[in-house]
Design brief:
Maf protein, alpha/beta
Length: about 200
């Protein structure tokens, strides 16, 4: 099978991850896993699994789940874990939770761990985690209120209650790490892995 005929499946419903792959010229399908992520993560949290490892485990679980229904396909599994100190944070449930999230992150450096794995026929071919240090500037409650009003419910799709590629850029003093990874996918390492495995043209 030539690289142009390889079946690539993104095991995520994320429009942001799909846009990154599409803009990079990758032909793929999207199929979300049917896993309960929070149920998967609960025992990892109880065991004290580090955030980077947790992200990788969840990305692999999603990819393996989708691989079961797609024999022969190259499955891209992804996950992001946001940690503030010892606390792992999840997507805010509503706008009030988003407000509290931004208040907690204000003036702090939090870490975003973006994991991606390649799975084919149940075998994990490749895995990678990119850590990103996100230094948020000090934000007034008034600014946070205006920011959330401008962004609306879109912030609820992000664990940090911001989207760096949009108005969320105004929240930060500095971002250490790969921009693509912050958006949701360590794109450059993934493209290299796809080339090395003959999945895309190298």
């Amino acid at each position: 099978m030539s690289s142009s005929e390889q079946d690539i499946v993104l095991a995520s419903s994320s429009a942001h991850r799909a846009a990154l792959l599409k803009n990079a010229g990758i032909e793929f399908r999207q199929e979300n896993s049917n896993l309960d992520e929070r149920a998967l993560e609960a025992p990892l949290e109880a065991e004290g699994i580090l955030p980077a490892d947790r992200a990788e485990i969840l990305a692999q679980a999603k990819a393996e789940n989708v691989a079961e229904r797609n024999p022969g396909a190259w499955i891209i599994g992804c996950d992001q874990i946001l940690a503030l100190g010892d606390d792992v944070l999840h997507k805010p449930a509503d706008m009030e939770a988003a407000r509290r999230r931004l208040l907690a992150l204000s003036g702090q450096t939090h870490y975003l761990y973006s994991a991606v794995v390649l799975v084919r026929d149940g075998e994990t071919v490749w895995r990678h985690v990119t850590p990103c240090a996100m230094k948020m500037r000090s934000l007034s409650p008034q600014f946070i209120g205006r920011f959330l009003a401008q962004e609306g419910n879109d912030v609820l799709s992000s664990v940090g209650a911001y989207q760096l590629e949009k108005r969320g850029a105004q929240l930060f003093d500095s971002v250490g790490g790969d921009f693509f990874s912050v958006i949701g996918l360590p794109l450059l390492p993934l493209l290299q892995a796809l080339r090395e495995n003959g999945v895309i043209d190298g």
